[in-house]
Amino acid sequence: MPRVSVCAGYPLFRSRFDASFPDEDVVFVNQENCPGGQKELEDRLANAEALVSDVDGTAHPYHFWTELRQLLPPKAAAANAVASRSYWQREPSAQEELELLFGPIPAMYGWDRKVLRKLVATFVPRIGFVPLFRSFRAEHVLLNSFGIWDPIHDWLEQFMSAEEANACQIAALRLRWGVNGHEVIVGYDPHTAVTGYTKGEFAQAFLSRVQVSNHRALVLGDSKTDIRMFGHGRCSVLIVPRSYDTGLHAHLSDLEALWPHLTAVLVSDSWDSLVDMRRSVRLATPAEVAAFGN
Ligand SMILES: [Mg+2]
């Protein structure tokens, strides 16, 4: 089990986060959103009925777009660099967020599906991803990404059964592979246009569709782009990998903005702690769930 530190307020969390970590996983519990501390966190993990997770950096340590940029012709790479710089230097609105991230995509036409498949074949999932995924019904899992549906699905199929990969929901842009080798990019699914939708809207739409309340949802993410799916009474856990080359602090300059939305912060390269905590308590009986006011 990880070391658990219950923090009453951001300053206490930050002072402990800033201290050097011992060689072990640490879970910081946000007492304002989880007043029962470790016990409440374990109960909420054990009783979660739906999983909403970011993909890049969270489910695996890689970043699809970073890797993909290596494959771009110079003109497209330059356009993408401008968009990325602009995105990271300011706080975009929901609409701008998508436009900035996806604006340069038309310049990328000519992708080869085999190339994308080969790329994601190198993306090893985080330890604990598979057992945590499998502790939920596959149709109650949403992978919520600013990436592209097709490679995420290909990636999932490498270590999940085809049934699990197909049952799992993937909120991401979808490529339509044309007969002449060109791709058409559509929205979350073929019925959704790419408009102002963010990870927040996709998470809410998914939870409504599977009829799981916010209180029974476990949400995992690793950066400020996940902020809109955190909070809302969900069990929201920020994953902060210990192994980032740039160090923990360079990775997360936005902790103060993220903290009020979080239930906990997991400092670890794996999800094993979450799996252990989810298994550490028995599941509530239906009567207990009803009494809890769910
Ligand atoms: Mg991420």
List keywords for this structure.
294 residues; globular; binds magnesium ion; alpha/beta; 9-stranded mixed β-sheet
Topology overview:
Elements: E1 3-7, H1 10-18, E2 26-30, H2 37-47, E3 50-53, H3 64-69, H4 74-89, H5 94-102, H6 113-120, H7 129-134, E4 141-148, H8 149-157, H9 162-167, E5 169-177, E6 183-186, H10 199-210, E7 217-221, E8 235-240, H11 247-251, H12 255-258, E9 264-267, H13 272-280, H14 286-291
Parallel strand pairs: 1-2, 3-4, 3-7, 4-5, 7-8, 8-9
Antiparallel strand pairs: 2-9, 5-6
This protein binds magnesium ion (MG).
What would you say this structure looks like, in words?
The chain is of the alpha/beta class and 294 residues long. It contains 14 helices and 9 strands. The protein has helices at 10-18, 37-47, 64-69, 74-89, 94-102, 113-120, 129-134, 149-157, 162-167, 199-210, 247-251, 255-258, 272-280, 286-291; strands at 3-7, 26-30, 50-53, 141-148, 169-177, 183-186, 217-221, 235-240, 264-267. The chain has a 9-stranded mixed sheet, with helices on both faces. Helix 2 (37-47) crosses helix 13 (272-280) and helix 6 (113-120) packs across helix 8 (149-157). The longest helix is centred in the first third of the chain and has 16 residues, at 74-89. The two termini are 28 Å apart. It binds magnesium ion (MG). Magnesium ion binds next to loops. Residues 54, 56-58, 222-223 line the site of magnesium ion (MG).
